[in-house]
Amino acid sequence: AGRLSPRRWHLLAAGVVRRTWDVLPDGPLRDAVDWAERHAGYTLDRPELADFLAAFDDAARHAAAVARDAERLVVLAADPDVDPNRYRHADARRTNPSSPLFQAASRAAARAVAAAGDAAGYAAEAVAHLVAAPPGPALLDRVRERVVTAARERAVANLQASLALQLKARG
Q1: How far is CA 139 from CA 1, 38, 57, 94, 144, in A?
Q2: Cβ atoms 57, 25 nearer than 8 A
């Protein structure tokens, strides 16, 4: 590991960041990864770095919003944006048999949408480390930690979406 040049460390970290490509929308974050690969090992010396860092916060918020919107379309049938407690029978002593299933589906759908946004946020953090940190083992560790967390959140989003749709189908 000590025999890797700064360029190779940077390219290795960029390869790890590309594992989150599916949660990064087209635009500044993907452009930053491409730019970091083109200038691997020398990103801290480049004048364009300030431009990427200035646009980063907006790009990260946009990526999270795009991921949440895409996940919302997947779980739309389970009504992720409604208050699950709104569906109660007027008479508190009575209940609608499908209400608990609907409430659970709605909560799972909302969790899926939130997890998708979180996954995009962690992926964006990995991009920020890639372009702004010096190449080396510490960069790879930081990037890998964010990418693994993003993948975990994406898996949670997928599981919650699946659960929401199954519950909705039963109720």
Answers
A1: 13, 17, 20, 58, 8
A2: no
